[in-house]
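Job type: complex structure
Entries:
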Amino acid sequence: MEKRWIVALASLWVLSVAGCGQPPPSSGQGGAEETTAETTAETTAETTAETTIADVGGSPELDAAADEYEEYVAEQTTLLADLTEQFAGAVVAGDVELARQLYAPARVPWERIEPIAAQLGDYDPNIDAREGDVPDEEWRGFHRIEKALWVKNTTEGQEKYARLLLEDVRSLEREVRDLELEPVDLVTGSVELLNEVSAGKITGEEERYSHTDLYDIHANVEGSEAAFEELKPEVAGEDMALANDVEEGFDQVYEELEQYRRVDGWVSYEKLDEADRRSLSQKVDALAEPLSRIGQVLEAG
Amino acid sequence: MSDPEKRLGREKISRRDLFRMAGATGAGLALGAGGYATLRGATDARDTGDETAVLPALQTVAFHGPHQAGIDTPQQEHLHFAAFDLTSESAAEIRDLLRAWSEAGARMAAGEPAGPENYSSFMPPDDTGEAFGLSPARLTLTFGFGPPLFGREGEDRFGFAGRRPEALAEIPPLPGDALEESRSGGDLCVQACADDPQVAFHAVRNLARIARGVAVVRWSQLGFGRTASTSVAQATPRNLMGLKDGTNNIKAEDADLMERYVWVPEEEGPSWMTGGTYLVARRIRMLIEVWDRASLADQEQTIGRHKYSGAPIGSEGEFDPVDLEARGEDGEPLIPEDSHVRLARQSDEEKILRRGYSFTDGMDPERGQLDAGLFFICFQRDPRRQFVPLQRRLGSSDLLNEYILHTGSAVFACPPGAREGGFVGEALFEGA
C-alpha cells in the first residue's frame, strides 16, 4: 500500500512580557500546552514552528487492518446491491406490502458503511437524500420511495426511482472494488458512524415516514464496531484500558438497543419517548468519547 | 484558604504595579499560574493602558485547601451549575471520576487546559478550547454528593449507605413548592463560578466530557449575575426584582460565623465531611410581569425594605439595624408581619451563607412571559436546622410568595477541600 505522509503543523506563538526573555516552549506532543496559545501579539513576538511528521499507515499491522476493512466494505456493498434488487423488484411489481417489508433491511448494509460510501462520487445524495436535501427534481433514492410507500401507500410512479436506485448501488459495488483505504479512514469512519446517530438519527429525522430508524441506528453501531475490531489489537497494544472502555461502550449501546428488538425486526421509532431517546443518545456519547481517542495508534512508534 | 489575601484581598492592580512586579521577578511569567492566560492579560493591560486591568495571576483562586473553593470565595459574577446522574454501578469508577475531575479542576482553576494532550493530529484535543486566551477569571469548582449516592429506594447502590451524613436528608416538601423533576435532585453536582461566563461554561463542559460513560448531566443552570455579596469588599447587588439582596449575608471574613453556621465541625460527623458543608439549590422563578405591576409601596411592604436604598422601612441606610418593633403613626409595624425581611430574621439558628445568581431561560411558553428568577444557592452546616425551617416559614406566609415559584430543588454534601495530589471526596472512598 502506498505510504501517505501527513504533516501536522503546529504553530507555537510565544510572546514575552515587558522585554523579559522567555525561554522557547518545550516542544513535542505533551509538554507544549503551557506556553501555547493562539494569541496574536503586536509586540515582541517570537514564532516557533513545530513540525511533526507522522507516518500514517506505516505499520504492516495497520495496513493489514485497512485491507481487512476494505473487504468488509466490499462485502457490505454486495449485500446492499442484492437486497436492493429484491426491494426494487417489489416496487416495480407494485407490491406495496412486500416493498415496505424489504425497505429497512435493504438499507442496513448502507448504514454500516455510509461514511466510506459517502466519500465516493454522488452516491450519498443519490441513494440517501432526505426530502429537502436536494432540489425536488433531483430527489431520488431510498427516501423518495419511502415517502410514496408510507405516505401515499403506493408504488405508483416509483418504478423509475427503483431502477435508478438499483443502478446506483450496483455502480457503487463496482467502484468500491478499487477503493484504497488508509488506517486513518477506519478511525474517522468508526466515529462518524456514531456521529450520524448523535447528530441526526436520534431525533427520528432519517426515517421520518417509515419510522424504521432503529434499523439504521443498529447498523451504524455495527459498522462502527467493524472498523474498531480491525484496529483493536493495535489499540489494545497501545492502551489496553482504552480498548476495554470502547468494548464496554459497544456492549452498553447494544444492551440499550436490545429492548427494542422483536422477532420480526425493530420496533417503530415512534415507540421511543423523549426519555428513551435521551438514554440511547447518552449511551452513544459514552461510547463515542473513548472511541474518538483510538487515533493514537496512528502516531505510535 | 492558604492564602486569604489572595482570595479576599486586592484583586486589581495598576499597570505600574504590573511592571514593578515583572521587573522584580525578572520575568512576568514568574507571576503566572497558566502560561497563555497570564501572557494575554499582561499584554492587554499594557496595550490598552488600562490602569485597572487585572493581572491574571491574581485572577486565580487556589483549587486545593482545607475547604473547597467557591464557598468562602468572594462571589464571582457568573455561574454554571450542573447536576449529574451516575450511569456507572461501580464505586471504583466514581472514585476515578472524582480524581479526574479534581485534576482537571485544578488545572482549569490555574488557567491551564483541562488536560495535557492538545496537539495530536489524530485525536480530539483534551481541552475543548473555548477558554484559550481568556483569563482564569477566578474560576472555582465546587463538587457535591446528592442523597441518592448513598442509596436509593432501599438499594445501597455503591456501599456508601453507612457513610451517609444524617444532615444529607432530602429536602422535604415545603409550602409553595412547584417543583419540576427535571430541574431537581442528582447524584453529583458541580458548581462552576467565574467572572467570565465562558470560563464557567468551559469548565462544566469539560467536566461533563470527562464524565462520559460514568455520569450524565441531569440538569444544568446558568446564572448571569450574583445576587449576594459574600465578602465585606463587595457591594450588595440587586436581584431581578430590583431589590438589594443579601444585605445581612454571612461574610466569609467572619471566621466565627463561618465556623458556627457553614463548616461541618469534627464532632458532627461523619469524619469525611469535617470541614465540608451542605449546599441547597432552589430554582426560584420570579413572576416578574406580575411584580412589575405592583406599586412601589407594595414592593417595599412585601420585602420590608426601601427599594432604592435597601434600608429597612423607616430607616435610611442599607446597613441600619432592622427594628422589628418600630411602629408607624397608625400603630401598625413599619415592617409588616409577613414581609420577607421579618420572616427571614426570626431565628438566629437559621443563618445561612447565600450565594445565588439571577437567571433567565428564555420564554415560558405556557404563560408567554420571561422565564427568569433567582437560582438560590446556600451553604450551611445542617439544612435540617437551617434552610428547611427557614423556607417552611417563608413558604407559608411570605408576602413574596405572590410573585415567586420554587421550580427546582436539590441538596448536596460538599466534602472538604482536596490537598495537592488528592481529590475532593477522597476520604469518603477510604471509608474514613
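Summary: The two ends of chain A are 19 Å apart (CA to CA). DSSP finds nine helices and four strands in chain A.
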